[in-house]
From TrEMBL:
<dbReference type="InterPro" id="IPR011257">
    <property type="entry name" value="DNA_glycosylase"/>
</dbReference>
<dbReference type="InterPro" id="IPR051912">
    <property type="entry name" value="Alkylbase_DNA_Glycosylase/TA"/>
</dbReference>
<dbReference type="GO" id="GO:0006285">
    <property type="term" value="P:base-excision repair, AP site formation"/>
</dbReference>
<dbReference type="GO" id="GO:0032993">
    <property type="term" value="C:protein-DNA complex"/>
</dbReference>
<dbReference type="GO" id="GO:0006307">
    <property type="term" value="P:DNA alkylation repair"/>
</dbReference>
<dbReference type="GO" id="GO:0005737">
    <property type="term" value="C:cytoplasm"/>
</dbReference>
<protein>
    <submittedName>
        <fullName>3-methyladenine DNA glycosylase/8-oxoguanine DNA glycosylase-like protein</fullName>
    </submittedName>
</protein>
<dbReference type="GO" id="GO:0043916">
    <property type="term" value="F:DNA-7-methylguanine glycosylase activity"/>
</dbReference>
<keyword id="KW-0227">DNA damage</keyword>
<dbReference type="GO" id="GO:0032131">
    <property type="term" value="F:alkylated DNA binding"/>
</dbReference>
<dbReference type="GO" id="GO:0008725">
    <property type="term" value="F:DNA-3-methyladenine glycosylase activity"/>
</dbReference>
<keyword id="KW-0234">DNA repair</keyword>
Length: 311
């Protein structure tokens, strides 16, 4: 399950790899977990494939993923092309190790695993955008956070290189987020607490690297005032494909886990107790339950509203 050699395209200077994929891989649902709403300017679902604008270090790149016989063809443009092509297997979830996952311990989890066996935990690879989107999603309804991300990236991002869809944008680097004036944040509906957290994180963004372990990245993130366990888990689950991340402090997940596994509401402590048998794969269980029970959760409160980050 490794990409082939990078093949130059003489006419355009593009490059591509073909990533061998196992039968049944659900590319769409694996990638959708990384997109922040249907209007996310860094992603585009088109008839000719899935497009993604991203960075590798200071280099911007556009990636296009197209199903082909036996796998997925990945084409890339821009100075960061080699980096995103090298990371394509992780983005497709091919580094996600399901060994040791005991889905059979609960019939609901076992059924969700059978039904959605093609979903893998994607490794986004670019940590900084995951930090920004996670902070934007603190304490607000999810649709509002996604609208803020959409506006800020559309206004301050970089047009994606290559023959990408016109609206596709590469999210700004940390230095741009750090310099955004207050009226840009307020115009995007972002309050002072969240914008200040992004700026503090931007000052040490160089420390948030994709080659770190999930434990170390979470530790570094939580040295930033305003970033707690919930935000750190959001980042490690998206950027690193952390199979054990648990978003403690979420207003929705404990009720989902409690309702799906016991038919009753749960708090954070109850959620952690219920997830304990799957230590090492708790994020996997959360993803399966969210996918299997989407739209079925009883109305316990506004979905997507987050608790204050725990310090």
């Amino acid at each position: 399950m490794h990409p082939g050699a990078v093949t130059p395209e003489p006419a355009t200077g593009d490059a591509h790899v073909v990533v061998a994929c196992p039968p049944g891989l659900d590319v769409r649902r694996t990638l959708l977990r990384l997109r922040r709403g249907t209007g996310d300017p860094t992603w585009a679902w088109q008839p000719d494939g899935v497009w993604h604008a991203t960075r590798r270090g200071d280099d911007v790149a556009t990636l296009r993923l197209q199903p082909v016989t036996g796998g997925v063809r990945a084409d890339a443009w821009g100075p960061g092309a080699a980096g995103v092509l090298a990371d394509a297997p992780g983005l497709l979830g091919l580094h996600d190790d399901v060994s040791g996952f005991a889905a059979h311990l609960h019939p609901v989890v076992a059924r969700a695993h059978r039904t959605h066996a093609g979903i893998r935990l994607a490794r986004g690879g670019d940590v900084w955008p995951a930090v920004v989107t996670a902070v934007l999603e603190q304490r607000v309804v999810g649709v509002d956070a996604k609208a803020s991300w959409r506006r800020l990236v559309a206004r301050h991002g970089t047009r994606a290189p290559g023959p990408a869809p016109t609206a596709l944008r590469v999210a700004p680097p940390a230095r741009v987020w750090a310099a955004l004036p207050v009226w840009e944040w307020r115009g995007a509906g972002v309050d002072a607490q969240r914008s200040d957290t992004v700026r503090r994180a931007a000052a040490v963004a160089h420390a948030f690297r994709a080659d770190l372990t999930s434990t170390e990245l979470a530790r570094r993130l939580q040295t930033v005032p305003g970033i707690g366990p919930w935000t750190a888990a959001e980042v490690t689950s998206r950027a690193l494909g952390d199979p054990d991340a648990v978003q403690v402090g979420d207003a929705h997940l404990p009720h989902l886990v409690g309702w799906a596994l016991t038919g009753r509401r749960a708090d954070d402590a109850g959620m952690l107790e219920l997830l304990a048998p799957w230590q090492g794969h708790r994020q996997r269980v959360l993803v399966l339950l969210e996918t299997a029970h989407r739209g079925q959760l009883p109305a316990y409160g506004p979905r997507g509203r987050r608790a204050l980050p725990m310090r």
